[in-house]
Design brief:
Number of helices: 24
Distance between the termini: 59 Å
Number of strands: 2
Oligomer: single chain
Order of helices and strands: HHHHHHHHHHHHHHHHHEEHHHHHHH
Strand content: under 5%
Strand order of the largest sheet: 1-2
Shape: flat
């Protein structure tokens, strides 16, 4: 109840003035017409008297989460609203049981929830309250169980080795394991890893690799915690199969300032590519990108630059150029013609398709803008397509020196926005025109060029009535 709600406050005051038998009559009248409410209050009464045992609560769990096939969100919402009401009684009742019984009941509730979710589409997340409470209580009860450390470690390992349930606490992360249980759990992981390797693991089969990698992961985390990078690499090597796996090990070595070990694993990655029937360009580039870092660590700056330049030429983009600039700051100038050559490479990026310009097609325009070479940028933009945001950036920069060109660039931008054919786009287009109008006035340019541009827009888009209406509101047309 909220204190600031006057209606509720008045009702509370009025209820307090009534005799107990009158309140009982009110309540019974309310619940007698609703079987669910009557059953719910009956359970509240039994629980208050301590009359609910483990068997009763177990039956309540089934009633709270009945097996139904539900897909409509409103029916699912009602299902879990009823479940929430039931669990308001169930949770206090469970807390009155022994610690062992509490564990059994919470675990059963989680199992039941997983079972019903097989036939219920809860994409709306209506179960989240119950799920959160069950997960929290299970993890809190774990260390309270009168089990041996071996039994606890076995339980954790059993629920870690494979996913038994979709809805369940994360194992072992959400369980506060004691040091003894943690060591026993890691020992079980280690034994199972060796058993799987002895039986043979086909790392090219995703399921086999994933199962082994999951078992190895806690051991890797321990190695990280103990800052034992040699052990970490040994464990990572157990599941290394893809280029990315070898590069990950190489990175650990590089982070540990062991460039020679890193180079060994990089060569493993290159060998993997060479052995593939179909060479992956992406894998090759990943290896080359890593080798740049490795060569820098080995003080082989010229080699690093050569590889980076090769990567740029094979896959040119403005971002790749900026990475080269950054590398030049690290290494000093290695190629005095770098910028001129980069300009030539970026000039070949442009490609116009039926679906618009290709990715990185306006890289050269970004290059000119970044270097503030506005005349070159304008010359390029006059004859090439480009991203609207880039054209607008250029238009804003040249409006004082080239107002007509700036207006023409804005025309291209506004036209692209209007072509989206929705009211929000029309509003955006008008806002761009208002901004352009202000900039032209601030620069002292002839306003006639804007009027002429708006006339072109009207001729081209006069069928778009909402757009025309907005133009009339803001401009004299």
């Amino acid at each position: 109840m909220t204190d600031h709600d006057p209606t509720q406050s008045e009702l509370v005051a009025w209820f307090n003035q009534q005799k107990p038998e009158q309140l009982t009559d009110f309540l019974m009248t309310y619940i007698s017409d609703n079987p669910d409410e009557q059953a719910r209050w009956s359970l509240v009464m039994q629980n208050d008297k301590g009359g609910l045992n483990k068997s009763d609560i177990s039956k309540m769990l089934t009633k709270a989460l009945p097996a139904k096939g539900l897909w409509e969100w409103n029916k699912v919402a009602r299902y879990f609203s009823h479940a929430d009401d039931m669990f308001e009684i169930i949770f206090p009742a469970i807390k009155k049981c022994s610690v062992v019984e509490q564990w059994q009941l919470i675990l059963k509730a989680l199992q039941r929830l997983n079972k019903v979710l097989e036939k219920i589409d809860d994409s709306g997340g209506f179960r989240f309250y119950i799920e959160g409470q069950l997960n929290e209580q299970l993890t809190q009860l774990f260390n309270q169980q009168p089990w041996s450390d071996e039994d606890k470690a076995n339980w954790i390992f059993e629920h870690f080795e494979e996913y038994k349930y979709d809805v369940f606490p994360s194992v072992p992360e959400n369980f506060d394991l004691t040091e003894s249980v943690q060591l026993l759990f890691l020992s079980l992981c280690e034994t199972q890893v060796q058993n799987r390797i002895a039986r043979g693991v086909n790392l090219s089969v995703w399921n086999e690799k994933w199962a082994l990698k999951r078992l190895v992961e806690p051991l890797i985390e321990r190695a990280k915690h103990e800052s034992d990078w040699h052990e970490q690499c040994r464990l990572m090597a157990l599941t290394a199969f893809d280029v990315g796996d070898y590069l990950a090990i190489a990175q650990v070595c590089l982070d540990a300032d062991s460039a020679l070990d890193s180079e060994h694993w990089l060569q493993k990655a290159y060998q993997k590519i060479a052995g593939e029937q179909v060479n992956s360009i992406r894998d090759k580039r990943a290896c080359q990108a890593f080798e740049v870092k490795l060569r820098l660590a080995l003080k082989e700056t010229k080699k690093a630059w050569q590889i980076k330049w090769q990567l740029f030429c094979e896959n040119p983009s403005f971002n790749a150029f900026k990475q080269l600039e950054k590398l030049e700051l690290q290494t000093g100038i290695i190629d005095s013609d770098f910028v001129k050559k980069a300009e030539s490479v970026l000039g070949k990026c442009y490609a116009d398709t039926n679906y618009g310009i290709a990715n990185n097609a306006d890289a050269l325009l970004d290059f000119y803008l970044d270097r503030n070479e506005l005349e070159k940028a304008l010359k390029w933009a006059r004859t090439h397509k480009a991203a609207p945001s880039t054209l607008q950036q250029l238009a804003d920069l040249i409006i004082d020196q080239h107002p007509k060109d700036s207006v023409e660039l804005y025309y291209r931008v506004v036209n692209t926005v209007i072509e989206q054919k929705k009211n929000s786009a029309y509003q955006q287009a008008v806002e761009l025109l208002i901004k352009l109008d202000k900039m032209l006035k601030d620069s002292g340019a002839d306003n006639e060029i804007l009027i002429a541009m708006i006339s072109k827009i009207i001729q081209q888009h006069k069928a778009k009535r909402n757009m025309m209406k907005l133009l009339k509101e803001h401009f004299v047309i």
